Every structure is written in C-alpha cells, then in structure tokens.
Amino acid sequence: MKRLALIGLLGLSLAACATPTAFAPAAGPNGVGFSDMRIEQDRYRVTFQGGGGAPAAQVEDYALLRSAIITLDAGYDWFRVVGRREQAAGSGSTMSVGGGSGYGGRSSVGVGVGAAFDLGGGPRLSTTLEIKLGRGPTPREPDVYDARDVRRTIGGRGGTLT
After folding, report:
1. What share of the chain in percent tops pLDDT 70?
2. What percentage of the chain exceeds 90 in pLDDT?
3. Interval 8-35: pLDDT, tens
4. Least C-beta-crowded within 10 Å: which of 15, 76, 104, 120?
C-alpha cells in the first residue's frame, strides 16, 4: 500500500508540470504558441494553441495579438476577423495507477482498484482566426481591430513580442 501511495504522490507532483502558455512561436504542429499562414497578400490564418488549462480569454487574446503584429509588420493599420474557430482538445497525458489482489487455489477471483491522474492541467484550447488586413482609418464595425491598439493593450500584459 505504501508503494501505491508513493506512486500516487509522484503522479500528483507531475500534474503540476502543466505546459505553460507564453506568447511565442509554436515548436511544432501540436506545440503551444502561435502559427500563421499567408493565404493572400492581405489575408492570413492565425492560430494560437494554449497549454493545458490555459484560460480561453488568454488563448483568444494571443491570437489577436499575433494578428496585430502581422498587420503592422506588413505595413497595414487594422485587421478584420472574417473567420473564427475555437477548439478544445483532450487534456493530454495521464498516468494510471492500479493495484489488485486475488485469492483461491486453482481458480481465483481478483479485485482491482485504479486511479488516473491528469498530467495536462486541463483541456488544450486553440483559437484560429482568418484575418483580412486594411489601411487607413479603422472602420467602426464588429470584428475590426486597430492593430496598434491591440498590440499596446494585449502586448502590454506580458509575454515576448515576436
């Protein structure tokens, strides 16, 4: 029983190792961070993948921040979100611990107990935005963002601007 308790404590300590969510490029197709693809000269698809348990608002904000940076780097002033998709994936890794005992001679009956520990910290959320870039005064319409304002407000909350 001591061994089972020790394994359980190990699993709980590993659960504290959830993937942090920082504003940075994704290390791979399933990595935490942003990725983007140019569709046309003034149209991009931007995705931000959060780490396990990252708040939905943070994931959305970082997708908007990356959109603002792309807009400014391309020499534009504002962007319009023309498509939006949010997804939640499973929490990722789990560790299972089980134990059992049996009794009897030639035939036996077994009893087992098991527990699973979530090592991912919660579901992994992602936001994908399709954006169209624009120049000049920012239109006062839904889903249109001033890139400088977005970079100043969201970028000022922390994270490395890349």
Report:
1. 65
2. 54
3. 444 444 444 455 788 999 988 888 999 9
4. 104
Q: Coil, strand, or helix at residue 21?
A: coil
Coil, helix or strand at residue 56:
helix
Tell me if 143 sits within 8 A of 80, measured CB to CB: yes
Helix (H) or strand (E) holding 154: helix 147-155
In contact, 85 and 128? CB cutoff 8 Å: yes
For the segment 38-60, the average pLDDT, to the nearest whole number, is 95
Q: H-helix or E-strand containing 64?
A: helix 56-73
Token duo for residue 81: 């979100």
Longest dimension (CA), the chain: 85
The answer to whether the beta carbons of residues 66 and 140 sit under 8 Å apart is no
pLDDT interval class at 103 (50, 70, 90)? low
Residue 88 phi/psi, 5° resolution? -125, 130
Tokens of 24: 């940075």
